[in-house]
Amino acid sequence: MKKKSFLSGIGAKLALAAVALTTVVFTSCEKEEFNVEPVELSPASATIVATVYDLTTGEVLAPQAIVETITAGTDGTIAATTKEISCPSFSNAEYLPVEAITVAIPKLAKGQFALIPVNFYAQKIVSAAKNVTVSEDPTTIETTEVKNTPVTYGPYDVDKNIDIEYAAKVGSEVVNINAINSYIETLVNSRAMSNENVIKVLKAVVGTYNTGIKTEMQKETRTIKAQTTVTFSPVTTIIESVVTVTATVDGVEYTIPNVQLRKAGATVVSESSESHAGHDHGHGDNSNSGGGAGGR
């Protein structure tokens, strides 16, 4: 099922800017009563509050907060005007810059107060790329096996199901990432989005394949026979190939060839066992008691 954007149908520029919502104007009441002095109305004021959302998910990135307060002039009123409001700060390392928005401030008389809400919608850099595909050149595929640290369990007095834990390689890396990033900087032919932002998006797309190959502990249930020591030896297949990445950004399709990709494939765990059956398996102070080397 195709995932819909939080703000479906929003344009590229609007996605990086904001939406000014309906301004709410409050008016103070001046109650007239017999023999009661007139109440002096307070000077007019206007408050602009802003909220920042993730364009795709609707997650609140910066909760509603006051970003601007407009005070009255010497006559206690506010003339109709406009104000440019910048997006409030939020943790935006993964997001494209959000443009400022021009907000209309209504004419306000004494005793009136305006609340002007503004919503900013920030777009993740990677999500700005559409129709991302990776095609692999089959003639470039090479595989190698990487041995991870073996682990040993047992012996036990009875057959036992054990959740063994072993090291496996996971992730991927772009071997020639610097060359690819330099190539991306020569590609851009943007329309509405700035060239700088398109470059950020394309680099981020390639960067999703450059998370690095890491060692991760994994678990698997195996049966250890009684009076047996079993050593498990995990081996990860590393696959190297040359791929082409294609992505559409701001309505323009970009092709990034010659991406040298190195990724971790499946990890296969082989086992070797040593039987202790028939041994004088003692307990307590007996020198033959206990587990095998590295036993768990």
Let me know the number of strands. 14
Helix content: under 10%
Largest sheet: 7 strands, antiparallel
CATH architecture of the largest domain: Beta Complex
How big is the Rg?
33 Å
Q: In CATH, what is the class of the largest domain?
A: Mainly Beta
Strand content: over 45%
Counted by DSSP, the helix tally is: 3
Distance linking N and C termini: 46 Å
Report the CATH topology name of the largest domain. Answer: Proaerolysin, Chain A, domain 3
Q: Which residue ranges are poorly predicted, with pLDDT under 50 across at least 5 consecutive positions?
A: 1-17, 280-296
The count of domains is 2
Cα shape: elongated
Describe this structure in words.
The protein has 296 residues and is mainly beta. It folds into 2 domains: 43-122, Immunoglobulin-like (Sandwich), CATH 2.60.40; 125-273, Proaerolysin, Chain A, domain 3 (Beta Complex). The protein is 8% helix and 48% strand. The protein contains 3 helices and 14 strands. Strands 8, 9, 10, 11, 12, 13 and 14 form a 7-stranded antiparallel beta sheet that branches. A hairpin with a 2-residue loop joins strand 13 and strand 14. Helix 2 (177-184) packs antiparallel against helix 3 (195-207). It is elongated, with a radius of gyration of 33 Å. Mean pLDDT is 83; it is low at 1-17 and 280-296.
